[in-house]
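User: Fold both of these, please.

Assistant: Here is the first one.
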Amino acid sequence: MERTIKDVVDGLLLHIKEYGSKEPTIRLYRSVYRSLINHCNRKGGELYTDQIPGKFLKKAEGCYESGDHCYEYYRFIKRATRLLDTFARTGKPDFGHLGGHKKYLPSPNHQALIKTILDEYRLVNDARTEMDRIMRHFFCFLEDDSIDIPQVSDNALFRFVQLAAATKKGSMYRVVRAVRMISEYLKKHRMAELKADFSMIPMKSAPIRMIPPFTHDEINRMMRCIDAETPIGMRDKAILLLSFETGLRAVDIIKLQQSDIDWKNAEIHVVQSKTSVSLSLPLNGPVMNAVADYILKTRPESGFQEIFLRSKSPYRPFKAGCALDGVIEKYCALAGVEKKPFRSFHSLRRSFATELSTAGIPLPTISQMLGHKNFDEARPYLSYDRSQIVFCAMGFDGIPVIGGVYADMPVRSSPALMEGGDDE
């Protein structure tokens, strides 16, 4: 039976949800599979074939080797591709790991101890699998050195970290996390004399991705590609304007109801889905007109209170904010706007913040308009404003240079001192 790649992906995502994956992980899976669907569509094939996973994985490998993908993202793509392949062939995705065998098999007593540690930390699914693998490696390391549990020392823990660094350069933060769990467990239950505090080793945090926002020119080009005479075009115009002019998150836009808009005072009032904090923002004329045109002229009749509905029957709201990524990708393609890595509908929110920064709006005000709980969350947006960054540059006039290769160079007199002359 022939199936489209989209049908296969939709079925797989249901299994991923049932597996218990967190929402951020599900969004990442959607992003990877959306790239796969777009890749297939560009190649002119909408039907799923057994060759698709291999071809997509080869493309991802090329992106990794060229530096376009980091190791962790490439690793995630490999997992997503394996899930797709196993689901398409068997009807059930394989959430296990490649190989079907365990490379490190410590003694039954040590395996039982590993299970106890993992249970105490309440690890499940992928996190449990990752820690289990590293802990098995650690206890095999102990067995190879004939070290019993009471003899485990801080030195042994550090030697294992050094050993793991040779083969796990891309995931050392997982190694440190596993060693820290083992150390804390052995100390807590007085099973070994350990003194080192592995919690003092800083864990690797997710890098702050420098995702370029859409420029004014790019947004204008996309807006010109919208056919505002059609129902879909009228809806998409309202959505894009609303995002760029208010900075609202996609999830709040798809949940927006008519009662959230104060038409008389030109304001919008929402309770943010991410923070559960109320947010009020002004609306300008073009945004209000675009939303009103969609509601009055082309919005399908529906019992749903949400303003924006899908364009095909049965007419219902969007299921998730990531659905709007398809809207932005559509008009990027039509306008010839470069699809840079990690750019998505959320980049319109970044564009909104960057425009405010360029206009000289203070950071606390920008943070307030974005609905952040802490204004520090808005700091990454300022990094896109080069004109503001240059004001941070300092000269070295008046700073004495008393060492180094520049110490013997003559000091240039400042114009102010030259004009002032001698005091005598």
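And the second sequence with its predicted structure:
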Amino acid sequence: MNIQTFGRVSAVHLWMLRAAARTGHIRLPALAVGRIFPHGSDVLIRFDEGGVLAVSLHDSYWARILVGWEHEPDVRWVLDSALAYRPDAVLFDCGANIGYWAARYAARVPVIAVEAVQPTYLRLVGNASRNGFQTIHAAVWDESGRPLTVQWNAAGEAALHCRLSHPR
């Protein structure tokens, strides 16, 4: 995995995130470092498998992969094992967020990524255009025909503050 920054400001921002991660924590230090820098800075993560993922330097959830922590190694093991068994499979990424798994595997298999939260979906669409996978702006639920409300806390990260409610 290779991380590409754009300009000195994003390079320094990434350097500070990596220095903060040496404490063993990243979420709160990432929020503090983010207050110093202007919003709108992205970096590109280039996966060894060929995919590309744009990540905001201000996203404290995804900051952990920017500092070298592996994202969900158990999920990667399951996906790698499943694709080794069925290399002709289609990856259906439900709750795709910004498209980490979709981007990582789009060079190997067809991918359809589903995300319900509008601001997160827009980031997913950008990553889909870089990698050639399909997106669907919807929620996946265990029942058809019943209303579903997705609430999002705009002050926090969508990955951590998305709540689904199902009225009975």
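Confidence is low (pLDDT under 50) at residues 157-163.
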